[in-house]
Amino acid sequence: MTDTQASEQTAAKKPTAVEKRKDKKPKSTGREGLITVIAIAKEYKLTPREARAILRAEKVKKPSGGWAYDPKDAALKRVREILKGEKK
């Protein structure tokens, strides 16, 4: 096999950038079904940054999966109450 034939074979095997993107599935954040602080902040016309700062000032512990809560979680109710009170 010559160098030209070898380089042609390796070039044929390499996927293009478009093919690489097609193969990848969208990343799952594991936050499906959760309510984020971003969504809650929008409800109260706050920026997500302001909402997180308020929660930190109130000593609310950040959940392990980020600032997102299960709709059934009691902590979500507390977060809403804190942010609602800050809206005034």
The backbone outline, from C-alpha atoms, is rod-shaped
Helix-strand sequence: HHEHHEH
Largest sheet: 2 strands, antiparallel
Coarse structural class:
mainly alpha
> What is the helical fraction, as a range of percent?
55-70%
Layout of secondary structure:
Blueprint: H1 3-13, H2 17-23, E1 35-36, H3 37-43, H4 48-57, E2 68-69, H5 74-87
Antiparallel strand pairs: 1-2
Describe what this molecule looks like in 3D.
The longest helix has 14 residues, at 74-87. The termini are far apart. The chain has a domain at 35-87. It has a two-stranded antiparallel sheet with strand order 1-2. By secondary structure, it is mainly alpha-helical. Helix 3 (37-43) crosses helix 4 (48-57). The mean pLDDT is 81. The protein is rod-shaped and about 75 Å long. The protein is built from five helices and two strands, in the order H-H-E-H-H-E-H.
Task: Give the gist of this structure.
The protein has 88 residues and is mainly α. Helix content is 56%, strand content 5%.
Task: Write a concise keyword list for the protein shown above.
88 residues; mainly alpha
